[in-house]
Amino acid sequence: MSRAFAGGSAEGPFGIAVDERLAAETQERLAAVEGLLLDSVHSDDPLLAQASKHLVEAGGKRFRPMLVLLASHFGDPSASGVIPAAVVVELTHLATLYHDDVMDEATVRRGEPSANSRWTNTVAILTGDYLFARASDLLADLGPEAVRIQARAFARLVRGQIQETVGPTPEADPLKHYLQVVADKTASLIAVSGQFGALLAGAPGHVVDTVTSACEKIGVAFQLSDDILDIASEAEQSGKTPGTDLREGIRTLPMHHVLAGTNTDDARLRELLAADLTDDALHAEALALLRAHPAMDRARTDLRRWAEDARAELLTLPDIPARAAFTGLCDYVVSRTG
């Protein structure tokens, strides 16, 4: 990694090596984020309080708050707006999960019954709205530029969800449409996480822009790696049922590569990808064919390209431990897919 690790390294988030002091400071500040997060979802109404804390207390990696904290090291990490900004992005992320579970008719989230299955769709939707409102309340103290950034990211989140729901138009390139959905629905908030951290810590404008762009690419890469893992991993590796996207009819990166091809040897797989794969036998057949298909290697190549593009941008930043942590994430997002 970087020479910035000369002072010793420790295992940081996702198992990447980070500077010992940076790791300790990040853990300490993540604890502060957690405290403010719990305070922010408090309500005097018992049901709303219980529903709002439901996903907060279920845990999660706090990936987006961590990016805020790491990015703040390109300026003054002790700046007053950094911790609230980290809570804002996590509240926004959690709110989208409540809404996603309603749209997907999900029954489980983070190993617990989803809010919509535990209560009702209406309660889940309104709880998500409440978390958006609490995020806005915190944003109001961070200044108009932060409010504008969040509003534009929220617009992208909604656009990505609508585009995913409707699907590509007949004249559109399905792969380009898919990547745009990934950028809007997933990468936009990850980009804002880096942007908030650098901006609110007072980093120079060109540094803020670079961190924002690199984080968006990391966000795309994380989603692409999830696509690959959904197909390639065994249940005991990922903790999820393999081929979930296949079963639900969600076309992800490897599938798009198969469908874009014209090889007659792929006719059976293309037929299966267009079929209802809720049948266990058909699902197993499709999963086996897809795992063995060259489309998986193409998807891994795409993933490496996104991660390397992010790394190239990050390496233009000051050589500090936080930069090494960011480049470590680029390594991790590739290595996790094998």
TrEMBL record:
<comment type="similarity">
    <text>Belongs to the FPP/GGPP synthase family.</text>
</comment>
<keyword id="KW-0460">Magnesium</keyword>
<keyword id="KW-0808">Transferase</keyword>
<dbReference type="Pfam" id="PF00348">
    <property type="entry name" value="polyprenyl_synt"/>
</dbReference>
<dbReference type="InterPro" id="IPR008949">
    <property type="entry name" value="Isoprenoid_synthase_dom_sf"/>
</dbReference>
<dbReference type="InterPro" id="IPR033749">
    <property type="entry name" value="Polyprenyl_synt_CS"/>
</dbReference>
<keyword id="KW-0479">Metal-binding</keyword>
<protein>
    <submittedName>
        <fullName>Polyprenyl synthetase family protein</fullName>
    </submittedName>
</protein>
<dbReference type="InterPro" id="IPR000092">
    <property type="entry name" value="Polyprenyl_synt"/>
</dbReference>
